[in-house]
Amino acid sequence: SEVLPEVCPSVFNGGGFKEKVWQEIYKNLGLGQTATYGEIATRCGSKGASQAIGTAMNTNPVSLVIPCHRVVKAGGKPGHYSGGTRDYLKIWLLDHEKQAV
Predict the structure, then answer these.
(1) What are phi and psi of 67, to 5 degrees?
(2) Which of 6, 20, 21, 25 has a CA-to-CA distance to 47 between 20 and 30 Å?
(3) Catalytic residue among 21, 35, 53, 68
(4) 7-63 pLDDT tens trace
(5) pLDDT value at position 23?
(6) 68 assigned to active site
(7) Contacts 24+ apart (CB under 8 A), 63-68
């Protein structure tokens, strides 16, 4: 089983939508698992807010600990990582985790 490093609680203290998104991904999206932007939006109580999920993930302060790379587009395409500047890294991380499970 995967053990992620602890995230400083102040990361989640804002209490806004992006903190809710980060917490959902951190607590409920394990190694080798993926979820779509829409699924995360629904889990956060904002069905249809897929684009807002992407915005929240783009501001993730600890991207390897809060594993936003596990959130993919509907249909399984990877989507963007780091605002689209490091998509190759998202694909590598997803492939690496598939091999680890």
Answers:
(1) -75, 70
(2) 6
(3) 68
(4) 888 888 888 999 999 999 999 999 989 999 999 999 999 999 999 999 999 999 888
(5) 93
(6) yes
(7) 65/4, 65/5, 65/7, 65/26, 66/7, 66/11, 66/22, 66/25, 66/26, 67/4, 67/25, 67/26, 67/29, 67/93, 68/25
